[in-house]
Amino acid sequence: MLLKMISLDWRSMKIYQIRGLFIPLYILLFGLYMPLIVFPMSVFVFLSFSVNPFAVEEKGELNYLYLTLPVSRRMIVTGRYLLSLIMMALGFICAAILMPIANIFSTSKWYVGVKGYFLLISACYLLYAVLNLCMFPILFKIGYQKGKFLGFYFPVVFSTILVFIFNMISTLPGNETLMFDIIMWATENIVLVGIISIIAATLLMFISYSLSLLLYSKREF
Amino acid sequence: MKKGEKIAIVGQNGAGKTTTLKLILNMAIKDSGEVNILGQSNDNYQLKEELGVLFDQPYYQEDWTPIDIDKSMSLFYKNWDSAMFRDYLSRFSLNPKQKFKTLSRGMKMKLGLAAALSHDAKLLLLDEPTSGLDPVMRDEILDILRDYITAENKTVFFSTHITTDLERIADYIVYIFKGRIIYSGLKDELLEKYCIIRGGEDDLLKIDRNILIGCRKHYGGFEAMIDIESIGGLPSGVVTEKVTLDDIMIFMNRKGENSCF
How many CB atoms lie within 10 A of CB A3? Predict the structure, then answer.
């Protein structure tokens, strides 16, 4: 039944499917400027693409269709998350193909190696999870029009606060080289940083999914 | 409800008709109580396999064609009958390749009806299926519905505030007023339960005001609705008339206003 829900969400994005074919080209253009950006860019664009079911759902009031079908609200939420995860995987595959191509033509060359790819993927997964947590529960609760603003607004505010706090801490006496030390430590422990990122991202995804289930199960139409 | 019954839930706008249907479908969250459909709790989402639902408009992705709807719905309903759906499309003169957004309101309703009738639903739930349609389209939709429920002996539960629809389809009526059930029973018995009385201003003074269910004063006289059991002892100048469903709704709404006194 979950596959059917994914299929229905995919079909509901009919109008966006052709546009989706242009995503790799769009990512490649950015990659020509800096190949390293291909991975985060790809994940971000595919995540944004996976939000489209919310847009068409609101425009066509498709909740009135979904809730008359023999599916539970849990299945609707789970299907939407699985579609989003598939999109993320597509984002990784797309990036893995495009990054070497971009590397050939770009003046800025990057040779990240196997560990570097692992770190890129795990860091992008974390980025995806943070954005997902900020967007999906809100979209399930209040819909696309209101939710998309808040969903993009929260990460910006959150990251601004984080940068502000980090700057505050790094200006304290004795912390002058904090940023440098962190970068050095991460460089020496790439695999560990990757694993921590994956664990943190999975935890955030679980929180996001649970929150969405809770909010959508109480939503009235 | 029993199998084969045609029940209409009636009441003015805001009375609670659509909310009732949404509660049945678990689209609205109930404060308390239980909702049972076909002998089972409506918490069992698989029950929706047995329901054919049509709101005051069908809800599909605007770029979908009837072919897309056929493919999408066949994923979810075990008894989905594509041949039947295409047969309905043909009967309703709907182009299978025409986008949903380009259909007129009447055509959209026909498409929604085709989908609701194509998976052998045991119970049809219809929320004001004819509201907003012109008389010709309304007549056509009601004919389709009547033919289907009569031929297949289907159970139908539908809401409306268009009383002429009731005469075409309903056997039973649930009359809701301000969220409360005022009457639940045979349609004809409801019409026999009340009557309209008309008389002059002098007659009004001789009538016990407590028996009046809504009253309207006009130049030289009044009209009101009363329970048929209160008909005895009315002044001789007062005339009685059969009540219509429209009258019941109008006078129920005026109940308690005492605008005649």
Answer: 10
